[in-house]
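pasting for the record
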Amino acid sequence: MYTILIICDDLKKIKFDLRKGSLVQRIVKKIFIVCCVLVGISAWCITPGQSLTKKGVENLIKINKERYIPYIESLAKKWSVYRMSGPLGKFGMQIMCTASEVHHAGAAGAFLENKVRVKKEARAIGTQKYDIDYMHDLIKYYKQQGSNAKDLPRILHEKNVEHLSLPANVTQSTLKRYPDKLSTLVKTGQINAPRYYRNVALNIFLRFLIEKKISF
């Protein structure tokens, strides 16, 4: 016979006699199943020392999307506050953000200002082959650049620009040098907005993974 002492809220001790092999075995079995599931998820997408496959990218998005949605919505709200704060907002950003973040912040402005689009794109990432290909390429490029989180804004912006069809009078090098111009081109209809929106949503997903320390 096994005896388990349970301390209740009223500090009274109640004894439960459990027959050998009943509750204990069920608990052990459930723990074993949970462990197997966790090991399976790890093997799915984040096998240490190996390159992340496109299937792994797809699963990575599926597993983390529900946590990512409120993250990106919160980011859009912060952007809105920054925009409304004027010079004070810019001053605050310069104090709290890295030089790279400040320099590249405007590139995502046309997306973050559109709250309806933010919600739509956040829920839609990973539903198209393009999403998986782009994310796979982005993660690979990030690792090639040394996986330096401080340099992430530049990396995200460069990949976005490289996957957009630009007007004849605008070059990739110009946009990479002057990130603010990208939002202007989107707002004036000179760049395909849906593709831009999806790219930024995927870029922010990578930022989410890094900030939350989710392995990939």
